[in-house]
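Aim 2, interim progress. The first record below pairs a target sequence with its C-alpha cells.
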Amino acid sequence: MQFSGPVSVFHDRRLPETAAPAGYAALIHACELSVPLPRLLSAIGSRHRIIEQDGWRIYTPRHAPEASLEGHLTFALKYEGLDLAVLKRIFLDVKEGDIAELVRQKPTGLYARRIWFLYEWLLGRELQLPSADKVSYVDAVDTDLQFGGTGQNSTRYRVRNNLPGTPEFCPLVFRTSVLNEFIAQDWKERARAVVSEVPKDLLARTAAFLLLKDSKSSYVIEGERPPQDRIQRWGRAIGEAGRAPLDAQEFLRLQGIVIGDERFVKMGFRQEGGFVGEHDRDTQRPIPDHISARHEDIASLMAGLIAFDHSAENDLDPVVAAAVLAFGFVYIHPFEDGNGRIHRYLMHHVLARRGFNPPGLHFPVSSAILDRITEYKSVLESYSSRLLPCVQWEATQKGNVKVLNDTADFYRFFDATPHAEFLYECVRQTIEQDLPNETNFLRSFDAFRAGIENMIDMPERTLNNLFGFLRQNDGKLSKRAQENEFTQLTRDEVQQIEALYAESFGEGGGGA
C-alpha cells in the first residue's frame, strides 16, 4: 500500500499549505477509491500548530501516523470520526487477512477492536478470530466526535454498538459547537414555554393557520401552485404526522396525497433511474445536479430508512434524527415525483413522533425553509456536489440516467451535519418568530374585529375584505375602496376604522 508524500493539491482540492495526506485522505489515495470525499480532510504539515482552512485540518508532525493501514485507520478513528462509506470501500479493497492480522497484533487495543467490529458490521462477514478477552467495552461511535445511539454490548469484540442505524442506512452527524449549543438551549422546552402562555382556543387557531401555511410553502418550494383543496389535504396529512411508524405502504399513501393528477406520473417506487437537474435544450441529454439512488437499491435503502425510524433504542436528539431521516430520503429520491414534499413531511413525522412538538402543534418547517431557500439549496448540495463525481452514468433514450456503478453505500452513509444544523435553525425560527408572530397577529385581529363589531354591523366576509384593504395600504383605506366596496362608510367611520387598525396592529402594522 503506497501512501502519498506532501502535496499541495489532493483530488482537485487545494491544501492551505504543502502537507502529507493522513487518515481517510491517505487511505483514499492508497486504495485509489472513488468515494465522496469527507467534508474535512486531514494532513500532516511541518508547523507545530494545527490549522483548519478550506476543508482541511493540518496537523503537526507529532500527530503523524505510521505509514500503514493500521496507522491511518487508527488516525482516522481517533481524529476524524467514522465515515462509513469510505471505511466500507477500504475494507472491500484490502485483504481480509490484513484486517485479521491487525487485530491479532493488538487484540485488546481500543482502535483494533473498533476496526474489527466495523469490518464485520459493514461487510456482514466474520473474520477467523477468537472472541476478545474480557477488557473494558469501547463505543463504536466516539460520542465526543459524533452523535451515537444508546448502544448494545457485543461480547465478541468488547465493543458497544452505538451506531444510530443499521448497515442498510446509517448517516452520521458530528458534534459541532453549533449543534451542542442548540441542544443546550433546549428548544423543546422553549416551545412549551411559548405555548403555555397562549389560551387554548387561540392556540388551536394558531396551529391550524401554521399547518396550512406549511403545506402551501412546501408546494411553493417545488415551484407549484396547486388548488386550495390539495393544499388543505396535504395540511391534514402533516397534522397526522408522527401518529404511526413508517412503512412502505405509508410512503405510497403519502405520495398519493401529494400527487393530485396521476395521469402523467408513474406512481410508486421508481423502476428506472432518476435525477434532479435540467435537460439540454437541443439534445434533451440530462444535466444532473443530483443523481438518485439506483432503482435496484431502493428496496434495501428504504428498508434501512424505515428501520432507522422504528429503532426503539435510537435516542438521537429529535432534530438531529429528523435531519438524518428526511435528508436521507431526499437523496435516495425513491419516487418519480413527490419526493421533496414527503422529505419535509418526514421532518414533521420525527419531531412529532419523538415528542419534540408541543401537543396539537406542528412547527411550520417548510415556511422557515422557504425563508431560507438559498441556504436550503446549499445544504442539499453540500453532499450532492461531492456525490455526483462518484456516480458513473449514461443517458437513456428517454432523457433519463442509467447508473453504471455500485452507489448504494453513498446513500446509506453520509455526513448529515450541515443538514442537522440547518434544520435546527429552522426550528429556532419557528419557535422564536413564526409561532409568537402568528399568535400576536390573531390577538390583534380579534381586537380589531371586536372594535368593528361595536361600531358597525358587518358580515364576516366584508370585515375580512376591509381588513385586507387596510393591510395592503399600511392601515389606510384607499380612495378606490372608499368609492367602491365601502362607499357607504362615512368619513368619520373611515377615520375611526383606521385608528382602530393602528391601535390593534401598530402604525402600518399587519402582523403575520
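The second target in this work package is listed in the same format:
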Amino acid sequence: MSPHAVITPTISPVIDEAITKEFAVTENGFLPKSAPSKRLSDSYYAPWERLAYRLPLLIQEERIRCEVDLLPVLSVDNLRSEEDWRRAYVILTFLTHGYIWGGQKAAEILPPAITVPLLKISSHLELPPVATYAGLALWNFASPSSSFEDVESLKALLTFTGTEDESWFYMVSVAMECQGAQVISKMLRALEALRVRDLDSVSAALEWLPERFRTIGDMLDRMHERCDPMVFYHDIRPFLAGTKNMSAAGLPRGVFFDEGDGKGKWTELRGGSNGQSSLIQFFDEVLGVEHKPATRQSPTGKKEEVSYHEEVRGYMPGPHRRFLEHLPRLGSIRNYVAQIADREGNDGEAISPEEARLRVAYKGATAALTEFRNRHLNLVARFIILPARQGRNGPGRPGAENLASASSALARQKGAQAELTGTGGTALLPFLKHVRDETWRAGSEIK
C-alpha cells in the first residue's frame, strides 16, 4: 500500500479546504484550483524543459531518442512544490511516449535519464510511470482566467505534434471537467440530504443532472470543430498508446525501464485515456452504476475476468482515487430508490409523493448518463472507427509501427468485425457498449 493511502475522515457535503487538502478536489472539480505551472521553478531542470519545448520538432525529425539519450540523470530533490511534481510528471511522461513511439519502430528500452526520476515522481503522485489522463489534460493547460469552462481560451502546455488539433483534443476534456465540477458539489449535498431523508432535495439534485449531462455532452460534440479525425487517429492517438496488449504495435513484452547499474524491469501499462477521468467514475458512483468484470480471452487463449474500472483507478492521482473509494460510505441513492420500488412492487405498500418523485428523478438521471455515453460512442465511431477503415492518405510516418498502424491494418483485414484497441489497451467498441448498457440497466431495472 502507498504511504499516502490512509483512511480518510467523513466528507463534508461541500467542497471546502478539508476536501481539497485530503482529496485534491477543488471548486474546479478534479482540476487544480489554479492553472498548472508553465515551467519548473528551478533552472536545474532546464534540460527537461528544453526537450519538452522542442518535442514536436524532435519527433517530426526523428531525433527525440538521441536527444533523450544525451540527458543527464537529474535528481528530484529540487522539486519544491506539488505544482513542480506535477509539471515534472507531465514533462517526463510526454518524453517517455515520444521516445517509445517517435521512430519507425517502437522503442522497447527506456533509458535511465527518464526512468530514474520518473519512477520517483510517479511514486510521489501515486500514478504509474506512463502518460495518464491527469498528465495529458488535468495538469497540462494554460488559461487566462481562474475559470476553465471556456474551451476557446484554453491551450495545452505540451503536445506531441504541435498541432491545434492535439491541443483542442485535450482542452475539450479540461472544459468538460470544469463543467462537471458543479455535479460534485451538488451530489455531495444530495448524499447528505439522503442521510437525513430530505428526499425533495435529493430529487431536485437528480432532476438537475440531465441538463448538466447534456451540457457536458455538448462540449464533447465540439471535438470536431478544431480536431480533425484523421489527424487525431494517425498523428496524435499513436503517442497516447501504452505498452500493455501492444504486441501488434511492436511491444510484445511492454517496455524495459532501465534504472542503470543492471537494474530495471519489463513493464506493461495502459496508455492515456478519458476512461481514467475521475469525474466519469464519480457519475457512476453517485448514481450506483455497477460495472461488473467482463470476460475476455487472454493472449494464451484462457478466459479471464477483467474489471477495467477497478484497474483504471490505479491510473488516477492517489487523492482522487481515495475520494471515489470513500463515496459509497456516504450512502447509496440507487439502493434507497430500489427499496422504494421493492416495497411498492412486492409488498403492495403505497409510497409517498416524495418517494415517487425520487424514483422518477433517479431513472431520468441514469437515462441521461446513458445518452451521454451514446454520444461518446458516436465520437469514437467518427474519430477512430472510420479513420481506421479508411487508411492513411497524406503526410505522416507511414512506416511507423504504432497503435494507429496496427489498428488500421487489423480494420482493413477484418472489416466490420475488427476489434480495435484503445489507447488504454482494451477492445474499444465492445467495452464502451458494455459500459453504456450497464448504465441503462441501473435505472431500467428499477420498476
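Strands lie at 109-110, 141-142, 155-156, 255-260, 263-267, 294-297, 303-306. This observation will shape the mutagenesis plan for the next reporting period.
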